[in-house]
Amino acid sequence: MRSRLRWVSISQIVQLVLGLLIVLWAGSYWCAHLGQTHLVVYGAIIHLYGIGLLSVSVVQLVRLAGIDYNAPVLIVQHELQSLRKLRTMCERTLLFLGFIVWIPFAFIALRAIGLDVWLSSPATLWWNLGVSVIIGALVIWLSYRFNHKFEHDSAGAALRAAQAELDDFKE
Question: Where are the domains of the chain?
Answer without folding.
Answer: 2-170
